[in-house]
Specification:
Order of helices and strands of chain A: EEEEEEEEEEE
Distance between the termini of chain B: 36 Å
Structural class of chain A: mainly beta
Largest interface: A-B, 27 and 29 residues
Largest sheet of chain B: 7 strands, mixed
Helix content of chain A: under 10%
Oligomer: heterodimer
Shape of chain B: globular
Strand content of chain A: over 45%
Number of helices of chain B: 0
Strand content of chain B: over 45%
Distance between the termini of chain A: 39 Å
């Protein structure tokens, strides 16, 4: 079964850091690009960051650029999101998402989603 | 950044109706456009990629069309399970973007 399981969410104070992780299983992990997508309470989906299969292509939303860093470990079938200088507006459910292709940008969509991990930024 | 604009933001319809959701990109994205269905408490589901390619297992009542900057998702003969929020998303640039969503509810 193809599966993505996120971890690392929680309550954090503004200005602090948090690291999200995503464990992938059921598919050849290093054949695909991976992404993080978030949804703030009452808001729509927001793409956060994406990384190609070999980490050569990485992108970030303007709202997180310079604060968040995406990385992947193909040997451990995992992708991570390091979040620094967290702000209240980063409060959201964060989804780990699999691309249908190896590269970003991609002509394909994102076909497998985790169940999400919740990040709450509050003092 | 490529901006994606969906219309309408919300839509009321009845079971059996046909509805169309529009999505416009701020620049040419060829057919690098996907559609997702999102229900509360669940992970979003990919319906269509490449602007018009239906994903495996998605009912044929879902149809995507368009290229360049103008795209549309049509759902014909609405079923009760179709009431959800729908998003378009471009993957043409390294910075992906979603539309703001269209909430489809029962009239």
């Amino acid at each position: 079964e193809v599966q993505l399981v996120e971890s690392g969410g929680g309550l954090v104070q503004p200005g602090r850091s948090l690291r999200l992780s995503c464990a992938a299983s059921g598919f050849i992990f290093d054949d695909y690009a991976m992404h993080w997508v978030r949804q703030a309470p009452g808001k729509g989906l927001e793409w956060v960051s994406g990384i190609s299969w070999n980490s050569n292509s990485i992108g970030y939303a303007d709202s997180v650029k310079g604060r968040f860093t995406i990385s992947r470990d193909n040997a451990k079938n995992s992708v991570h999101l390091h979040m620094n200088s967290l702000r209240r507006e980063d409060t959201a459910s964060y989804y780990c998402v699999k691309d249908m292709g190896p590269h970003t940008p991609s002509s394909y969509g994102m076909d497998v989603w985790g169940q999400g991990t919740t990040v709450i930024v509050s003092s | 950044d490529i901006q994606m604009t969906q219309s309408p933001s919300s839509l009321s319809a009845s079971v059996g109706d046909s509805v169309t959701i529009d999505c416009r990109a701020s620049q040419d994205i060829i057919t690098y456009l996907s559609w997702y269905q999102h229900k509360p408490g669940k992970a979003p589901k990919l319906l269509i990629s490449g602007a018009s390619t239906l994903e495996s297992g998605v009912p044929s009542r879902f149809t995507g069309r368009g290229s360049g900057t103008d795209f549309a998702l049509t759902i014909s003969s609405l079923q009760p399970e179709d009431f959800a929020t729908y998003y378009c998303q471009q993957s043409y640039s390294t910075l992906y973007t979603f539309g703001q969503g269209t909430k489809l509810d029962i009239k």
